[in-house]
Design goal:
Length: about 600
C-alpha cells in the first residue's frame, strides 16, 4: 500500500512576509489612488477655469463682431438715397446709373467701418419690399452675389426685428447675418439687410489665442458650424446631447462625443440666439496628470522594494525562535531529548517552553488517567447499548396488547393503546420530516385528545372546525398538538366544571394562508406570558417550553408574521393562533 504524500504547507516566514508586503502595498496603492483623484480634481478645476476664461474671451470677440455687424445697419438705413430707393413703390423708375450709385454708397459705408478691417465679409445685399435688390462684393473670391439670396429672402419672417443667422444647404463656408429694415417714417417693413461672412476667416479671428487642440462650435435649430472642419461629427453629437435652452450664464460639463471625452463650456448668445461652445479634449488633462504621476510611481516602486526587504528581515527575526523550538520538539518526538531548552529571545517563547516542559512531565499521569477513563467509557457504552430498545419492538408490543384487549372485548383499552402507539410512531417519524399533511396532523391531535378524554372521562369535549379543502395542505409537524396539550393541561384541567376545546382552521378570503386557532374555555391567563422569555426549568411544565419552541420554529420557517398570538380573558376563554402560508406537498419537497 502506497503512503499518501503529505501536502507541503506554507511556512510562517512566508506568511509574515506576504502579509506585511500586502498591507504596505495596499496602503501605498490607496495613497496613490487618493493622490491621483485629488490631482485630477485640481487639474480639472484648473482646466475648468482656463476653459471658461478663454471661452469668455471667445464670446467677447463673437459678440463684438455681432455688435459691429448690427451697428452698420442703421448707417445704411440712415442714407437718404438708399432709404428712398427701399421705400419707393415703383422699382422700374430706378435707372442703371442710380442703382450703381446706390451700390457705391453701400460700399463706401462698409469700408468706412471697422468691420472692413477684419476681411471676413464676402458680400452685402439689401432687398427692398418692392423687390429692389442692391449688393456689392467685399471679397474678390466671393461667389456670385445672387447665389442663394432669393432662397434666403423667401424663408425669412418679415416680422422679425432682431438680428438672426441663416446658412444655405451645401454651402458650409458662409454664414448670413440678416436683419429686417423698417421705415423711420411709417414704421412699416421696407426691406431686408443681409451680410455674408466667410466662416473660416471669422472663426480664425475668434479662436486666435485659443489652445490648438480646442475648437468652438455654434448651433441652433438650423445651424451647426465649427472652427475645426474635422470635428463636424462631434459637433453634431454635441448638438443632440446639449439642451438648446442653455442659460445665458456659462455652463461647464463633461461629455462623451464619438467615444472621446471632452470638457464643454457653453453659453447662449442672446443677440442672435445661437449657442456658443468651447470644446477641449480630456486627453490633454490625462497627459498632464500622467506626467505628474511618473515621479510618484517611481517613488512607489522604490518604497515597495524597501518594504519587501524590511518584511523579509522582520519575518526572519520573528520566526527564528519558532524554527529553533520546532527543531527541539522534533528531537523530543524522536526520543533524543526529554525537555525543551530555555528560549531567551522573547518572553512569550520562554513561557511557551516552560509550559511545554510542564506538559511533558504530566503526560505519564494523564496517560494513566485517560486509560482508566477509556475503560470506564467502554463499559458505559456497553451498558447503554444493552439498555437500548428498538422502537419497532415497542410498536409490536403495543399492537399485541391492543390485540389482547380487543380479544377480551376491552374496546376502550384497545383504542387507548392504538392511540398511544400512533403518538409514539409520530414522535419517532417527526425526527425524519419537517412537514406533514394537515389531515395527518389532525389525526395525531385526535389520538392525543382521545387519550386525555379517557383520562378525564366526560370532563373535556373537543370540536373540530376545519374545511375539507384545507386537509391536503402541508403544515409543520407537531404544530397543533402542543397547543392542544397546553390548552388541556393549563386551561381545562384546573377548571372544576366541564370544559370545551375548539380547533378551528380558516382560510381568509383572498388570502394565500391559513389561520390555525386553538380555543378553550378554561381558567385563562391572568397575565399573557412572553413566549420568548420562557426558559426550561424543573418547576415549569414542559408544555410552556413547547410553546416557546413552536413559536421559534414558526418564525424560522415563515418569518415573524407567523409567530404565536395569545388572547385570553381569565375565567372565560384563551385563544392561541398563528398563520402559515398554504403549501402543497410538492412545494415542501
Amino acid at each position: 500500500m502506497k503512503t499518501e504524500k503529505k501536502k507541503k504547507l506554507p511556512t510562517l516566514n512566508l506568511f509574515i512576509t506576504i502579509t506585511m508586503s500586502s498591507i504596505i502595498t495596499v496602503i501605498l496603492l490607496c495613497s496613490i489612488l487618493f493622490y491621483y483623484i485629488r490631482t485630477e480634481q485640481i487639474l480639472t478645476n484648473n482646466y475648468r477655469h482656463s476653459i471658461t476664461s478663454q471661452f469668455s474671451q471667445v464670446n467677447q470677440k463673437i459678440n463684438s463682431q455681432i455688435e459691429a455687424i448690427d451697428s452698420i445697419i442703421p448707417l445704411y438705413l440712415s442714407n437718404s438715397t438708399i432709404s428712398a430707393a427701399l421705400e419707393t413703390a415703383q422699382p422700374d423708375l430706378l435707372s442703371p446709373e442710380k442703382r450703381i450709385s446706390i451700390e457705391k454708397q453701400m460700399a463706401y459705408i462698409y469700408y468706412s467701418t471697422s468691420l472692413s478691417a477684419k476681411n471676413f465679409t464676402k458680400s452685402i445685399c439689401i432687398m427692398g419690399h418692392n423687390n429692389n435688390v442692391f449688393s456689392f462684393a467685399a471679397s474678390a473670391s466671393s461667389l456670385s452675389l445672387s447665389f442663394g439670396n432669393a432662397e434666403i429672402f423667401r424663408t425669412i419672417d418679415k416680422r422679425e426685428h432682431r438680428l438672426f443667422c441663416r446658412m444655405l444647404p451645401g454651402d458650409d463656408n458662409s454664414i448670413y447675418f440678416i436683419r429686417n429694415l423698417f421705415s423711420s417714417n411709417t414704421g412699416n417693413y421696407c426691406g431686408t439687410f443681409m451680410i455674408r461672412i466667410d466662416l473660416a476667416k471669422w472663426f480664425s479671428y475668434c479662436v486666435e489665442g485659443l489652445d490648438p487642440s480646442w475648437f468652438i462650435c455654434m448651433y441652433d435649430s438650423s445651424i451647426n458650424v465649427t472652427s475645426c472642419p474635422d470635428m463636424k461629427t462631434e459637433c453634431q453629437a454635441l448638438k443632440r446631447m446639449m439642451n438648446e435652452d442653455t442659460a445665458s450664464s456659462i455652463s461647464f460639463r463633461e461629455l462623451t462625443l464619438c467615444s472621446e471625452d471632452y470638457f464643454i463650456a457653453s453659453r447662449k448668445l442672446e443677440k442672435i440666439k445661437l449657442v456658443s461652445t468651447v470644446v477641449a479634449p480630456r486627453d490633454v488633462l490625462l497627459k498632464d496628470l500622467n506626467e505628474i504621476l511618473k515621479l510618484h510611481l517611481v517613488l512607489l516602486a522604490c518604497t515597495l522594494a524597501l518594504a519587501l526587504l524590511l518584511a523579509i528581515v522582520i519575518s526572519r527575526t520573528i520566526t527564528k525562535p519558532i524554527d529553533k523550538m520546532i527543531y527541539h520538539i522534533n528531537q523530543i518526538s524522536k526520543g533524543e531529548r526529554t525537555v525543551l531548552p530555555p528560549m531567551k529571545m522573547y518572553y512569550e517563547f520562554d513561557v511557551w517552553a516552560e509550559s511545554f516542559n510542564k506538559m511533558l512531565k504530566q503526560l505519564d499521569t494523564y496517560y494513566n488517567d485517560n486509560f482508566q477513563k477509556q475503560l470506564l467509557l467502554k463499559s458505559s457504552e456497553i451498558r447503554t447499548l444493552q439498555s437500548q430498545m428498538n422502537p419497532h419492538f415497542l410498536f409490536n408490543v403495543l399492537n399485541t396488547i391492543a390485540w389482547k384487549a380487543q380479544m377480551n372485548d376491552q374496546e376502550e383499552i384497545y383504542q387507548m393503546v392504538i392511540s398511544l402507539g400512533e403518538l409514539l410512531k409520530m414522535n419517532t417519524l417527526s425526527k425524519e420530516k419537517d412537514f406533514v399533511r394537515l389531515e395527518q396532523e389532525i389525526e395525531y391531535v385526535k389520538f392525543y385528545v382521545y387519550l386525555q378524554q379517557m383520562r378525564f372521562e366526560d370532563k373535556i369535549s373537543c370540536t373540530l372546525r376545519i374545511p375539507d379543502e384545507l386537509m391536503s395542505y402541508m403544515v409543520p409537524v407537531f404544530c397543533i398538538q402542543p397547543l392542544a396539550e397546553n390548552a388541556i393541561i393549563h386551561g381545562l384541567e384546573p377548571k372544576d366544571e366541564k370544559g370545551s376545546l375548539i380547533i378551528q382552521i380558516l382560510k381568509p378570503d383572498g388570502s394565500d394562508c391559513m389561520e390555525i386557532s386553538i380555543i378553550d374555555n378554561g381558567v385563562g391567563f391572568e397575565t399573557i406570558p412572553d413566549i420568548r422569555a420562557i426558559l426550561p426549568s424543573d418547576e415549569d411544565d414542559h408544555t410552556h417550553v413547547g410553546l416557546r419552541n413552536l413559536d421559534k420554529r414558526l418564525e424560522l420557517l415563515f418569518g415573524p408574521g407567523s409567530r404565536l398570538n395569545i388572547d385570553s380573558i381569565p375565567g372565560s376563554y384563551t385563544t392561541i393562533s398563528f398563520k402559515i402560508p398554504l403549501k402543497r406537498e410538492e412545494d415542501s419537497l
